[in-house]
Amino acid sequence: MQNVRHAYGPHAAVKDVSLEMQPGEVVCLLGPSGCGKTTLLRIAAGLEVLQQGAVAINGRKIAVPGGRHVPPEKRNVGLAFQDSALFPHLTVLENVTFGLETQPPRQRRQRAMELLEQLGMAGYAKAYPHILSGGQQQRVALARALAPAPQLMLLDEPFSSLDARLRDRIRDDTLHVLKKVGAGTLLVTHDPEEAMFMADRIALMRDGRIIQMGTPQELYCAPCDPFVVTFFGDVNELYGEVRGGVVQTPVGPVQGGGLADGTQAQVLVRPEALRVIELDEPPTSHRYSHVIMAKLLGRTSLLHICVHGEDGREVHLHARVPGVFLPAANQPVEIRLDPSQVFVFPADLASAGT
Ligand code: ATP
């Protein structure tokens, strides 16, 4: 997609998006509600007529404003949307073979059974959709979309109606099948964890634009602005001035990230960046902290901590530590920072991060 823009009346939903995918690559469009993900997917599918920009597959332009518009059924794309309905009067097998009319019946059946097998649904081939659970229906919808071996799969929140446990399994199966058949996939989600699990690359969107595109690790470990940091989870926000290349924060000095001296900096500290060490008694000579509250969340414990800054100010922070770590309220602690989970930006970008 090149310089794609799209407006609904006066409202610009997609503002200037360029996006390139490699064959077989899984790319997730990730972003908050209303940022334009579905619109972009519908443009790729041909369900929206292109207003500005260009869309091409394998170097062939399939949409140009006011010109060529290859209709959805001729784009060789597979579509599965959140509420993709199956045909209720057809069996599971018939649903999956539906798009294969040009092939001989035996081949159609074989192809459909193969996919149902891979998605754990072969045992339901003769069943009708109404007896299937939501998750099973989504698997069949996915098999139906994959059956014609499209070059590109377009999936819009395909797992959103599933409960958490089932969702993990179906995501796993789906990714396995997508990789096995080598289908390039553009998947819409608003769930950062889902995007990180499914994607080779994530395009994080806000307000009609791609803010950053890269591997999950690039976005998580080298976010380009505060919005990218905060989108992947809660963070502690600290402020300070850069002096001698360093920002002094209540939890200690932090490298200024190349910002000029005198810049007001926003320091974003992921809760997992804080290491918490219990002290026998509060140190008298320098800053110290104490626990306000500790909660066990399962695999991690979440601690609310009050830090006493050198200037006498108190700052409240969240720390997330692995396993069961539940110090009592008022327990004196020392805080250490893992610098790889601390991000420094000019403070005037701060408002953009929310
Ligand atoms: P969600 O995650 O909530 O589905 P999204 O990121 O997929 O959101 P879109 O559905 O692409 O966002 O919508 C982008 C913007 O365009 C939103 O502000 C939405 O209200 C608006 N919009 C979407 N479809 C239409 C339409 N058919 N007519 C008018 N406005 C629309």
UniProtKB/TrEMBL annotation:
Residues spanning the signal sequence: none
Presence of keyword S-adenosyl-L-methionine: no
Alphabetical UniProt keywords: ATP-binding, Cell membrane, Ion transport, Iron, Iron transport, Membrane, Nucleotide-binding, Transport
PROSITE patterns with a match to the protein in the record: ABC_TRANSPORTER_1, ABC_TRANSPORTER_2
Gene3D superfamilies: 2.40.50.100, Nucleic acid-binding proteins (2.40.50.140), P-loop containing nucleotide triphosphate hydrolases (3.40.50.300)
SMART domains the UniProt entry points to: AAA
Domain ABC transporter per the UniProt entry, residue ranges: 1-232
GO molecular function, one term: ATP binding
InterPro entries: AAA+_ATPase, ABC_SmlMolc_Importer, ABC_transporter-like_ATP-bd, ABC_transporter-like_CS, ABC_transpr_FbpC, Mo/tungstate-bd_C_term_dom, NA-bd_OB-fold, P-loop_NTPase
Protein's UniProt name: ABC transporter ATP-binding protein
Lineage: Bacteria, Pseudomonadati, Pseudomonadota, Gammaproteobacteria, Oceanospirillales
